[in-house]
Amino acid sequence: MASHIPFDASSCQRTTPETEVSSEGTPKNVWLLLGTIGAAKLGTLVVILWASHSLGSVALIVVTIWPWFVVAGMLIAGPALFRYRLRRVRAKREQLWREEWTIDDVDLAPVATSTARPQRG
Prior knowledge:
By secondary structure, the chain is mostly helical. It is 59% helix and 0% strand.
């Protein structure tokens, strides 16, 4: 007969390695993937233009690449709009802070200081 061995499910949990995160908060492997795709696209364009010096190949490149410009513009627009809004909000906060703590130039009469003690009576 086989003896009963207790099963511990916590020892079977899958662990994933921590991914490195850049200063912007995006994992570095995402930037590596985007850079690889961009380099491959650029390399392909250079090879096409080098192999075929015709106007038709340039037209083909323009027709096939414009969607990539739209995608790249959308990818850049999100963080760019966020940074623009962040700068506006920070400037507004700084302006409100200055307005709250700035005192207008008011001619304050100097307070009379006297060393003599007031008399009672």
